[in-house]
Amino acid sequence: MFNMTGQNIEIDLHFIKEKIETGLITSIYIPYGHQLAYVLTKSLPTKRLSQLACNLGMIDIHSPVSERVL
């Protein structure tokens, strides 16, 4: 759906804008410290990495069974 050609991005922008205006899509504020995507995009302290990874249901497949949650 999201192609990198200028025309398609413009069409997608109008499509999304229309859905937001009709209320089909809503945007909510997520505080900086609660952004789950940061586990994949940022260098984080070990404790925060573990918390976010746990919220995503990620496990460490290399740790013993009793310590699998990151």
| Radius of gyration, in angstroms, nearest whole number | 18 Å
- SSE string, helices as H and strands as E: HHH
Oligomeric state of shown chains: single chain
Shape category: elongated
Report what the structure shows:
The protein has 2 domains: 1-29; 31-70, no CATH class. The protein has 3 helices and no strands. The protein has helices at residues 6-22, 38-41, 46-55.
Task: Summarize this structure briefly.
With 70 residues, the protein is mostly helical.
Sum up the structure in keywords.
mainly alpha, 2 domains, single chain, 70 residues
Lay out the secondary structure.
Layout: H1 6-22, H2 38-41, H3 46-55
